[in-house]
UniProtKB/TrEMBL annotation:
Family, per entry: Belongs to the lycopene cyclase family.
Recorded metabolic or biological pathway in which this protein acts: Carotenoid biosynthesis
Assigned GO CC terms: plastid
Start and end residues of each stretch annotated as Disordered: 21-41
SUPFAM superfamilies: FAD/NAD(P)-binding domain
Coiled coil start-end: none
GO MF: cyclase activity; intramolecular oxidoreductase activity; oxidoreductase activity, acting on paired donors, with incorporation or reduction of molecular oxygen
Designated name of the protein: Uncharacterized protein
Extent of Basic residues compositional bias: 31-41
GO biological process terms on file: carotenoid biosynthetic process
Superkingdom in the source lineage: Eukaryota
DNA damage recorded as keyword: no
């Protein structure tokens, strides 16, 4: 969902953090669901659709951009020994490199294109970036967010939302890396080898670098992170198609971003799409920059198997026609595919992970960017306590301390609860989903905001569940009673595995 409710090699830009370092992803390739075939204070004017063409015929005008920065490069003739080697120069990798190098730890960041600008559109709650001192990395903010449940009911969320400036965020993090002595190397990592107290990476150009700790920040497609066979790799998947578009006009208020639009009146003349959407719903996520520039994304919050990408695009075409949004130019487009939930990596193991491959994606929403920015300093402290002192704690002790800084037992249990939320959402149809979010956003802001930002403790999540049942309508309570027992049993079994 842009943040993503969402967080790659262009064109087109995607919302799944890659460069991929292997042709075979570490998570199972998803099966796919297929089917047989101007707002004025709450009012949406429906237009004759004949004059609104299919925007899929337009080609995105986005061109890959290169970051203009003089990086300190590693040269193969240099001493190829570091404390930490980070694979990947996406937001997760650069953030960790910036943070851990603050403590004098020697870091090298390896990426095929370390100077490329990130193509993803990232959206965050403004208070999340303010808490991290990153509010100057937002290029647009909205004082409120809208949630359209149906044609007659809209919720307005009093919480500021912002779009991340990719150039500002990368510039700030890279500047920190350069100031702290981080070195960069332009290559792909093909292989990792381990000894008791040292590991090495072999790059595609034959260069070998050695370090006390290897961190994989290369995204969901990496094969360097290992999983236990105790739990089934049963990810849910968020899939979306997004465009940054110039339009004649659009019906959305400029002071509100659209977090979710669950209306389905645009499918009135599309019976096959409407039936499919009632079972496996999608919503519109929108960030209006002005009357003629808007980011639009049709999103399947979570599905298993993953919803067909073509199905998502067809629904988006029908929606934009119905809203009277005529797309004149596509400045950027992106396909978002995010694995959600499923088991965590094996803890600990020889390779540390951060970002998409580490399990920090919110299992119920797909949010990741702000969470990654927040956990990197915690992981950096753990690394520095081992490698930034004269004790030089390495090997198994190092791996154990660093992994448990990212995933202490409390956080693992909280994640199981969020995964329970995902499993429940998977069982809801469109009407059930609408009822759920109607009750969810009736909760006290502390709870719904804390849930979306992964800030709640386990006790607070339990209280949230009780409150949610109290706010729920009778049909929604029926959904909870009839559809939650199986996900609840899974959650309790997984918690038992964590404890025993």
């Amino acid at each position: 969902m842009g943040t993503q409710f969402i967080l790659s090699t262009p064109p087109p830009p995607t919302s799944i953090q890659q460069p991929l370092l292997s042709a075979t992803p570490s998570f199972p390739l998803p099966k796919t669901h297929h089917t047989t075939s101007r707002k004025r204070r709450g009012r949406i004017h429906i237009h004759n659709t004949s004059k609104f063409g299919n925007f899929l015929d337009l080609k995105p005008e986005h061109q890959p951009e290169t970051f203009d920065f003089d990086l300190p490069w590693f040269h193969p003739s240099d001493r190829a020994r570091f404390d930490v080697i980070i694979i990947g120069a996406g937001p997760a990798g650069i953030r960790l490199a910036e943070q851990v190098s603050l403590y004098g730890v020697k870091v090298c960041c390896i990426d095929p294109e370390p100077l490329s600008l990130w193509p993803n559109n990232y959206g965050v709650w403004v208070d999340e970036f303010e808490n991290l001192g990153l509010e100057d990395c937002l290029d647009k903010t909205w004082p409120m967010a809208s949630v359209y449940l149906n044609d007659s009911k809209t919720k307005y969320l009093d919480r500021c939302y912002g779009r991340v400036s990719r150039k500002k965020l990368k510039g700030k993090l890279v500047q920190g890396c350069v100031s702290n002595g981080v070195r960069f190397y332009k290559a792909k990592v093909w292989q990792i080898k381990h000894r008791e107290f040292e590991s090495s990476v072999l790059c595609d150009d034959g260069t070998e670098l050695k370090g006390s700790l290897i961190v994989d920040a290369s995204g969901f497609g990496s094969t360097f992170i290992e999983y236990d066979n105790v739990r089934k790799r049963n990810h849910g998947f968020q899939i979306a198609h997004g465009i940054l578009a110039e339009v004649d006009d659009h019906p959305f208020d400029l002071d509100k971003m659209v977090l979710m639009d669950w209306r389905d009146s645009h499918l009135g003349n599309e019976p096959y799409l409407r039936v499919s959407n009632s079972k496996f719903p999608t919503f519109l996520y929108a960030m209006p920059f002005n009357s003629n520039l808007i980011f639009l994304e049709e999103t399947s919050l979570v599905s298993r198997p993953v919803l067909s990408y073509m199905e998502v695009k067809k629904r988006m075409v029908a929606r934009l026609r119905h809203l009277g949004i005529r797309v004149n130019r596509i400045l950027e487009d992106e396909k978002c595919l995010i694995p959600m939930g499923g088991p965590l990596p094996r803890i600990p193991q020889n390779v540390m992970a951060i970002g998409g491959t580490s399990g920090v994606v919110h299992p119920s929403t797909g949010y990741m960017v702000a969470r990654t920015m927040a956990v990197a300093p915690v992981v950096a402290v753990a690394i520095a306590q081992c490698l930034g002192s004269t004790r030089m704690i390495r090997g198994k002790q190092l791996h154990d301390k660093v992994w448990n800084s990212l995933w202490p037992i409390e956080k693992r249990l909280v994640r199981e609860f969020y995964s329970f939320g995902m499993e429940t959402l998977l069982k809801l149809d469109l009407d059930g989903t609408r009822r759920f979010f109607d009750a969810f956003f009736n909760l006290k802001p502390y709870y719904w905001q804390g849930f979306l930002s992964s800030r709640l403790t386990l006790n607070e999540l339990l209280w949230l569940s009780i409150s949610l049942f109290g706010y729920a309508s009778n049909p929604s309570r029926f959904d909870i009673v009839t559809k939650c027992p199986v996900p609840l049993a899974k959650m309790m079994a997984n918690i038992a595995l964590e404890y025993f």
